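for the writeup, i need someone to sanity check this before i put it in the appendix. the sequnce is what the collaborator sent (i think, or maybe the updated version? ugh). structure was predicted straight from it, no edits. if anything looks off just tell me and ill rerun, i have time this weekend
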Amino acid sequence: MFCLPHHHRKLPAIAAIVIFAVAISSAGCSQNPYLAAPGGAAWNMPANAAISQNDARLAELNRRVQLLDDNNRQLTTQLAQSDQQIQVYKDESELLRNQLAAVSNQMESTAIAARNAQTQVRGMQASAQVRGGATIQPNTNLTQMASRLNLGGIPVQQDGNVIRISVPSDQLFAPGSAQMNAQAATTLDPIATQLVRMFPRNRIGIEGYTDNAPLYGGGFASAHQLTAAQASAVLDLLSRRNGMPPNQLFTVAQGSNNPRQSNDTPAGRAANRRVELVIYPDNY
């Protein structure tokens, strides 16, 4: 019987061990989840975890964006409300300024009316003395001197013991205004020159008259306020420009009283708008 050498008998055993090891290794690798085929559940686990984390971060970012958007809308609403409140304050401030200006104008008109009332009282007292004749020494030459007045078409009238010089207001002021125009000085200068020369000591009243037309603009609430301001403007010009003593002069506001003509026509209303310089026989 043929026998293998001793070392040759070990080969089958070694081969069997190798085959067994390969089989064990193959079985173990087929059950390893990290070596499983792509697309299986074990293969997808890391990817699913990353997607979940990204979704969470995205949701958080969306929540923050929404919060910022809500805050922005609130701030926009608050800003609009603040702008509206600022406009309300501006409107109220403008209203208060207008009311203050109106009160100031009213106070000024009242002060003018008060001063004119004082001068009017003095004028009425002087006029009453003229009518009563108790304490007055009339100027016997008054009538003669009236005839010597040459005022270039300005009407001069003897009215009892007084002389009236009637100056159309339209030659001195714009209608409804007490602001003298450029023609006023040219009209009044010749009159003042003759008054200073012929009646240096006589009391002279300045009476303002107007028509019954409604007042527009000028800041005067009544015809009396308008005529008082016009008479005061004439007094100021005669004393300041022509050097007539202020205590020789006084003003009277007649308003629309004592019209010379009917107010039904433009010509009649123009004739009623006048400033009369009234020369009294008594001395100041």
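Residues 127-283 form a domain with the 60s Ribosomal Protein L30; Chain: A; fold (CATH 3.30.1330.60). The chain has a mean pLDDT of 79.
thx in advance!!
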